[in-house]
Amino acid sequence: MNLDVNNWSLTLAMLLVMIALWIGYREKLGIDREIIIGVIRAVIQLFVVGYLLKYIFKVNNVFLTFAMLLIIIFNASWNAQKRSNGMTNALVISFVAILVSTGVTLGVLILSGAIKLIPSQVIPISGMIASNSMVAIGLSYRSMNTQFRDQRQSVLERLALGGSLRDASIGILRESIKTGMAPTIDSAKTVGIVSLPGMMSGLIFAGVDPVHAIKYQIMVTFMLLSATSLGSVIACYMAYRNFYNTRKQLKESASED
Amino acid sequence: MKAILELHDIGYQVAQNQILQNISLSVAAQDYITITGPSGSGKSTLLRIIASLLTATKGEILFKGQNIMEIDPIQYRRKVSYCFQQPTLFGRTVADNLDFPFQIRQVIPDVDKQKAALKVVGLPETYLNKRITELSGGEKQRVAMIRNIMYVPDVLLLDEVTVGLDEENKRIVNNLIEHFHTDHQVTILSITHDESEIKQASRLLTITKGRLEESK
Predict the structure, then answer these.
(1) How many domains, chain B?
(2) Which residues in chain B are contacts of A160 at CB distance < 8 A?
(3) CATH number of the domain that B16 lies in?
(4) In the predicted model, what is the mean pLDDT of residues B16-45?
(5) Residue of B nearest to A167 (CA)
(6) What is the DSSP letter of B66?
(7) What is the tens place of the pLDDT at every residue in B92-129?
(8) Does the beta-carbon distance from B52 to A157 stay under 8 Å?
């Protein structure tokens, strides 16, 4: 393997942070503190996760692997629900959506033999799936909140005509699911042309033949489409009822009781 | 005539703001009631409460003798239909709007019925495929109204549906209301300031500062 980032080269690479700090200082952006905190957090988090993964890979225990997966999924859910603008049950909804989207996608990858049920493959792949699902769900929540506010009149009219909650919300649901999936579809279109994504770049870095590396990237593209579509669909269908009360009336917001 | 709707001591309050208070009203089947009152007096709120789009904070409403809180709101709204002051049309074409009442009942849209309804409001049947962006304000209101009566409701709640319309459109809409009242025995509750419509009605109610008075 031709990978050789030693501590000394990493320290020198820190000069790159100085560039960001210098720009922040010169342009009076007031973000020096944010940059420093961000850098310190990134370094600590990555060191911790590095040692943790080393341990988990070495132990190679199924329960420990699944415990790690649950932690990843919980953290992703926690971040996704922050975008819900105080929606009731957003954490539970996000958790179910990310758990199912990650579980199904991971299951297909393992059963098809694309990856093996070993921690060094399952954990990084799950992280990728869960984080993409998290972003998709967050975007869907945001879109739903905006649309239920902007299209209030139209929703009320559908209700007044005797439409069910689903009849009244179906346009918003479709748009929110599409919004959640849009970045993945866009990146699927431009992969290889605009960006050489992380998975493929990592393998090429590690000395793998690019023709072999792209096969993994194709797998990643497929799995992210599955994860974001499942995540968005589940989250949207579980969340839209929050915009209505028990009398099937439109509330002012999804966070209202 | 037996009461189709009965309002008992209805009140509606948002935070400290009392919007409606002590409203009691008995509406007989086939009544044609117009409601007037200054803006901000609570007229629309009252109609939305009757339509079950809002829930009164006090009192109860009976529909055919049954408390509306015991009726599924979706089924209830199909019988007590509310028309908005400035309606929003859905989708792309007029057909998208007239299909909606069928879709929510899981029924294939009856194109003949749609064409006949368009004719009643003076619109040619070719309008089914017309884009909603190409309709005038009066045409939009007419399409919105027939959307409410594709399946004839028991009660039609009209929230200033003729406001902002020219005389010709007002006449067409008023004729449509009269047609449904006399020919289909639909009970009408209509917020209006239009003198010709008030004359058409059997009862006139006035709401002032959230209180109701009968004046005809």
Answers:
(1) 1
(2) 51, 53, 77, 81-84, 148
(3) 3.40.50.300
(4) 93
(5) B104
(6) E
(7) 999 999 999 999 999 999 999 999 999 999 999 999 99
(8) no
